[in-house]
Amino acid sequence: MKHILVIDDDPVFRLMLETFLTKNNFLVTSVGTSSDALRTIKKTLFSLCLVDLRLPDINGLELLKEIKNLTPDLPLILMTSFVDVRTAVKAIKSGAYEYITKPVNTDELIIAIQSALKSDNKVSKETPSTEDTSFYHYGRSKSSLETLKAIELVAPTNLSVLINGESGTGKEFAARLIHARSKRNNKPFVAIDCGVLSAELGPSELFGHVKGAFTGAGFDKAGHFELADGGSIFLDEIGNLPMEVQVMLLRVIQERQIRRVGAGKSQEIDVRIIAATNDNLKDSVAKGLFREDLYHRLNEFSVSVPSLRERKEDIEGFILKFMKDANKELGKSIEGFSEEAMDIMVKYSWPGNLRELKNVVKKTVLMTDSTGQSVVSPEIIPYELRVSPGISSENTFGGYDLKAASLKQEREYILSVLEKVKYNKSSAARILNIDRKTLYNKLKLFNIEI
Ligand SMILES: Nc1ncnc2c1ncn2[C@@H]1O[C@H](COP(=O)(O)OP(=O)(O)OP(=O)(O)O)[C@@H](O)[C@H]1O
């Protein structure tokens, strides 16, 4: 029986989850604070962890990092309100497997749990073949075509590639395409998130270790570079690589050799490096946080993956692609989105890019009844999207949907107060009689940027 750890400070919600998960044949332990969570994780082997992003004693992202340090392979699913979607996107980068939004839809929860348990959710994933990317949709906008052209140009070479782009735009997808179109495509593609590599464990994760190299090194272990030999290694979030590990990586690139931690001898290695970042690495170089020599080694060729805002004309195509995938995965037969629903989707700003789009499409497919006229209607689309700027027609609020209408009013009222106080958030919060944190959350929810 799979053992799930639930971390949430709301006792009623915990009880509800416990009851639901137990009914679905899971063994459940639940805790209300992060300190209890960490203590429990040290003592028990869990198959999966459900984490609320807002806990009283620690920032959810910090907790994620601590859990990842303790148990890098434990799949984590975040539970968050829509207000937190941006944070959830960050959390995915820090190693969470998936996020689901509150109020939790139980069907969605079960699907997320099953798919997290199926995936090995290791720090690295190997793709030995091209299957992932052999049939793909890349969009037809000018910026998408430019990216695709760059990918196709560089793929057959052995150049190191640095992929830039916001979170969730498809940098890893681009890396997989590059590998798939290279001569190395019958060899492994190994992806690793540098954000989870600490200065202590990073060298052993990347380059392996020999038995007894450090406390806890009970056996010889190959690192990701060895696993990728002959193929490509994808170093995601390269900007997060600790300085000590940057030095070691540079040496490996220069010498084309690796040495397992604690080993006496080096070994030859043939790995193509594809790195990705959503920070401005040049800035990090200027600030002395990233080595300039390493930057140039990694950036022999650069590929920029555009945000969804820069390729709005592609949104519809991606929606249909993700809808088809979701139909297949969920056993549904949704045929499309109504015109109004599509309009909302296209106008939204998608801060989480393709990842957020894919998530929302999957959710709407799940919630749409596939009997009768199986088209996604506006009421199914999450409120956050419906109240975002640029969307104002009555229909986009689902016609008679009272909650969406009042959210719209709330947004307009907040904007008018902000204008009155010349965008001073403290004054606005005082007038609105809410605390600053609540105001910040509402600004995020309503996509109000000041
Ligand atoms: N061209 C594409 N066609 C279909 N799906 C795509 C495409 N590009 C990206 N995706 C999907 O969008 C999601 C986000 O992509 P990916 O993980 O590659 O983004 P990323 O930029 O690497 O994110 P992060 O910065 O958070 O690491 C994934 O589920 C991926 O499969």
UniProtKB/TrEMBL annotation:
CDD domains linked: AAA (cd00009)
Keywords, sorted A to Z: ATP-binding, DNA-binding, Nucleotide-binding, Phosphoprotein, Transcription, Transcription regulation
PROSITE patterns assigned to the protein according to its UniProt record, in alphabetical order: RESPONSE_REGULATORY, SIGMA54_INTERACT_2, SIGMA54_INTERACT_3, SIGMA54_INTERACT_4
InterPro entries noted in UniProt: AAA+_ATPase, AAA_lid_NorR, CheY-like_superfamily, Homeodomain-like_sf, HTH_Fis, P-loop_NTPase, Sig_transdc_resp-reg_receiver, Sigma_54_int
Alphabetical GO biological process terms: phosphorelay signal transduction system; regulation of DNA-templated transcription
Residues annotated with 4-aspartylphosphate modification: D52
Protein name (record): Transcriptional regulatory protein ZraR
